[in-house]
Amino acid sequence: MLRVWLAVLLLAVSGSVFAVERVVARVVSLAPSLTEIVVELDSADLLVGVLDAGERPAAIKDLPSVGRYGQLDMERLLSLKPDLLLLWPGSVGPAQREQLKRLNIPTYVAEPHNLEQLTTQIAAIADQLGRPQRGVVLAAQLRQKLHNLRQRYRRDTPLQVFYQVWDRPLYTVGGGQIISDALQVCGARNVFADLTLPAPQISVEAVLQRNPEVILASDQAQLDAWKAWPQVTAVARGQLLLVTDKGLERPSGQMIEATAKLCQIIAPER
Prior knowledge:
Layout lengths: L1 H17 L8 E4 L1 H9 L6 E6 L12 E4 L2 E2 L1 H6 L4 E4 L6 H10 L3 E3 L5 H14 L3 H22 L5 E8 L4 E2 L5 H8 L2 E3 L13 H7 L3 E4 L2 H5 L8 H4 L3 E3 L11 H13 L4
Parallel strand pairs: 1-2, 1-5, 2-3, 5-6, 7-9, 7-10, 10-11
Antiparallel strand pairs: 3-4, 7-8
C-alpha cells in the first residue's frame, strides 16, 4: 500500500511540474496593429522587437526593429530570441511565413474579419502574454462600446456606402474586410460587400451601377473627382465624405473609437 501511495505522490508532483504554464518574456510583434494591442494591454514591457510601418506608439519608440511591412529581417528576429511571435499574415510574405513555421517559435496568428472577432482576439492575445485578466477587462469595455454604437446608429434600411481605398487604380474593401463590418456598426452597408477579396480592384462603371448613397475616401481630390457623375445619389445629395482618421486601417482596440468617428461622419444627426 505504501508503494501505491508513493507512486501516486510522485505522479502528483510530476504532474504539477509539467502543468506549469509557459512563461512568456520575449515577444516580437509582426504587425503594427498587434503591437498596439500589446500596448493597450499594458504589456509593452514584454516586447523585444517590432515590425515597423509608420509612427510607433511612444511606449515602444526605442525597441529594435525586425524590418518593415513585407520585409522581415529574419537574422535580426532570431537574434532577439523571442519566445512568442504575434503575426498578422498580410504583414509578412508567404515565403517568410513558411520560414517562420520551420523555426518552431510559438506563434499567435490574428486576422480579424469583424469587430467582434477583434475583441475576442484581444482577449486571446492577453492569454498568450500570460495576462488574461487584462484581456477580459479590455474586451468587455470594447464590446460595450460596440453595443452602444450599434444601438445608436441602427437603421431599418442601411445606407448604401462606397468606401474608396485608392483611385488609380480604383480599390475598395470587400465584405470580409473589417472596415466593411465597421460600416455595418454605423447603420451602413458596403455596396461591394459581395466581393470576397479584402481589397478588390473595381471599375468606375461598377460604382455607378451600384449607385451608393454615400462615398467615403481619405483624400478630398479623390472625392471631388466623383462630381463628374452627378447621376450618382451620393453626388446629387452632396454625400462625398472625408475620412481622415487612419485608425480604421489598424485592427486594434483603438479601431472601436475610429469606428465611432466613422459613424459620426456618416450620420451626424444621430
